[in-house]
Design goal:
Length: 681
């Protein structure tokens, strides 16, 4: 039975990785990002229900069952199957059972890879929940839209002139490099046979060749710098643009660190592509040329060095896979240690106030110990590998010189030829070492790019504007149902009408769907059932740009940028100073602005730490009001503002925007400020 290992990217991904492994076992394929979306992955992971539903979608008959350890041996159970386990540290986890015998059970653990456990070891962690699946038809196999090779070839098509220039300059540089390597041999052979004038002329010729060599080296570096700049625009910028154009459902569970990790991996890919031009192409030319030259100098010496190089290459290739696994583990443990450390530093006040410092330090110490242990194992292996490789190099040099001296004693080789041979030998060995050094990096980056490809395969929001026409009117919500996970429904068969120009207070207990309704109105999510209409036009019939241009939406997650207050309000767009002053007045910001030394030009610190929570919210509201819109949705937008100031701002909004529809979400007692109130739940 074939066994497919799929490693999880973080602790939430075990269920998605198990599904991916099952799909590949049956020769299917769905990228991890799509699986996360189809299983409604949350920050708490995936439920067994969603795993079953996703497998059904992919072409399986699937169901969950309570199966004891004894019944795992039943011939009725077809493996592979997904098992739920619970570890002593409290972690719930999914694994794939691939094979079971009387003594052992083979599982694919997304956190570690393939494991062979005794039946007792497995029974200690197995919870009795088994997810079974049987293929009903051909299993879904989506296209792998983007691969590292494809993006490499696409770039070659985009920059053919630049690539040709780099290749030409690299070849010219190599020609000069090889020619200068013969300088010593030619001069020494000419000292006693040619006139001084001819020798001086030869020296002049080589001076010109050396000059061209220096110039070509500079030109090659210049073109490669230009190549790197173009790669930044071709790789990094489109990816960042793609991230911001993805629907909220795809980004809601992503951390900032995870996204930045993908950007950093793209930088590594850019570096690899650049190295492919500087190393692979030129190195192959250099290896072939030097091999031929060395053959004509002395075939016997070349045979010795070839045998040593074959052993050297074999050791490198064999160790490559093991080295890659060590690097992966090291990066995983380093990422986890950094995550815990950054999180704890950001929660400095919480840790201090809880008086539980030792507990947090113990967790940090455990993560650090694991990371350092992994780092030590990696360094130890690298030391052993380098020792082995350097042994071959040093012995190779010894055998070359020894055999060379023997050939000289037997008049089969001259001393000058031996010097030239050893000089050119570096042109064969060094590029080969450079290519071998790229292999671990290539394999690792190839895996990283698979994760990036998963991001790129996600569909962006359609942000193309059609005619831009919007018809304000009554908001009619009919039989609206919505769920983030297709299981729990914060909104269920909601029917509601909000008149045009009305000012509505939206209330209800936490989790009853107030924020969900606001997001649906702004089309950050789509409803599972029902419709939302504005003036009898379904909001789905508007393009997203037009709809969002005519709705102001301020959520609970809004933040300020580390910039001036003015730039935070205007977002660097052209503005009318009178409009800025007006929104400042509406949001009761005059007293704050007047107390600041640089007024609107005051620079906000990181996380706006030089402002209170209420001050931040008022600036955020001012920024939102700079947009001319027909509907204003404020979801707990002033929750940190004192009640007196909040009432003043609400009164300002109601007075200044008499014809605009205002939907205001709050838990505070503000009933006297609004003529209409809608209670959810």
């Amino acid at each position: 039975m074939k066994k497919i290992t799929v490693k999880q990217e973080d602790f939430k991904d075990c269920g998605a990785a198990c599904i991916s492994s099952i799909l590949k076992y049956y020769d299917g394929y769905v990228n991890l990002e799509q699986i996360r979306s189809d299983t409604c992955l949350s920050k708490n992971g995936i439920s067994a229900y969603h795993i079953v539903e996703a497998l059904k979608k992919y072409g399986f008959q699937s169901y969950g069952a309570k199966v004891s350890v004894e019944n795992l041996f039943s011939p009725k159970i077809i493996y592979p199957a997904i098992a739920h386990v619970h570890y002593p540290n409290g972690l719930d986890h999914y694994v794939v059972i691939y094979k079971i015998t009387k003594k052992f059970i083979t599982i694919m653990n997304p956190a570690k890879g393939m494991e062979r456990l005794t039946i007792k070891e497995f029974s200690n962690i197995y919870t009795g929940i088994l997810i079974l699946m049987y293929p009903l038809s051909k299993i879904i196999k989506l296209d792998k839209n983007t691969t590292l090779k494809k993006i490499f070839y696409e770039f070659l098509k985009k920059e053919p002139k630049l690539i040709r220039k780099i290749l030409l300059i690299s070849i010219l540089y190599l020609i000069c490099l090889f020619m200068t390597s013969f300088y010593t041999q030619i001069i020494m052979n000419s000292v006693y046979t040619l006139d001084k004038i001819i020798i001086y002329f030869i020296c002049l010729i080589f001076l010109i060749i050396y000059s061209f060599k220096i110039y070509f080296a500079y030109l090659k570096d210049y073109l490669l710098t230009y190549l790197n700049k173009n790669l930044d625009f071709y790789l990094i910028l489109p990816f960042i643009s793609h991230i911001f154009k993805l629907p909220l459902k795809n980004m809601a569970t992503k951390s900032t660190g995870e996204i930045m990790k993908r950007v950093n991996e793209l930088m590594d890919i850019k570096s690899l592509i650049s190295e492919l031009f500087t190393t692979i192409i030129t190195s192959i030319i250099q290896i072939v040329a030097s091999f031929l030259i060395l053959y004509f100098i002395n075939a016997k010496l070349l045979l010795v060095i070839s045998i040593i190089l074959i052993i050297y290459v074999t050791v490198s290739l064999v160790s490559n896979k093991y080295l890659l696994n060590l690097i992966e583990d090291n990066i995983t443990y380093e990422t986890e240690f950094n995550r815990v450390l950054v999180e704890d530093i950001s929660c400095y006040h919480t840790i201090k106030n809880s008086n539980k410092l030792n507990s947090f330090l113990t967790i940090i110490e455990d993560k650090m110990t694991t990371f350092l242990s992994s780092n030590f194992n990696l360094s130890l292996f690298l030391n052993k590998l380098n020792f082995l490789k350097s042994s071959f190099e040093e012995l190779g040099i010894y055998f070359i010189y020894t055999l060379g001296f023997i050939l000289i004693l037997n008049n089969h080789l001259s001393l000058v030829s031996l010097i030239t041979f050893t000089s050119i030998l570096s042109f064969l060995v060094d590029p080969l070492k450079n290519i071998l050094a790229l292999l671990p990096k290539y394999n690792f980056i190839k895996q990283s790019f698979t994760k990036i490809s998963d991001y790129l395969s996600l569909l962006e929001e359609n942000l193309k504007e059609s005619n831009g026409i919007f018809y304000p009117g009554d908001i009619t919500i009919n039989n609206l149902s919505f769920s983030y996970n297709n299981y729990n429904y914060p909104l269920n068969d909601l029917t509601l009408t909000i008149k045009e120009g009305s000012k509505v207070l939206l209330k209800g207990p936490s989790g009853c769907g107030k924020s969900s309704l606001c997001k649906l109105l702004y089309r950050l999510y789509e409803p599972n059932k029902g419709s939302i209409k504005i003036k009898d036009i379904d909001i789905k019939n508007y393009d997203l740009v037009t709809l969002r241009n005519h709705i102001i939406y301020v959520s609970q997650q809004e933040k300020l940028f580390q910039d001036t207050i003015l730039n935070n309000i205007t977002l660097h767009e052209q503005y009318d100073l009178a409009e800025v002053e007006n929104v400042i007045k509406l949001c009761a910001l005059e007293s704050l602005i007047d107390t600041l030394p640089f007024k609107l030009d005051t620079l906000l610190l990181e996380e706006s730490s030089n402002l209170s929570g209420g001050q931040k919210q008022r600036i955020i509201l001012a920024r939102a009001l700079m947009k001319k819109a027909d509907i204003i949705i404020l979801d707990e937008a002033l929750s940190e503002v004192d009640l007196t100031t909040e009432k003043k701002i609400i009164k300002n909004l109601i007075t200044y925007y008499p014809d605009k529809t205002l939907i205001y979400v709050s838990h505070k007692k503000l009933d006297t400020m609004f003529k209409e109130r809608v209670d959810l739940c």
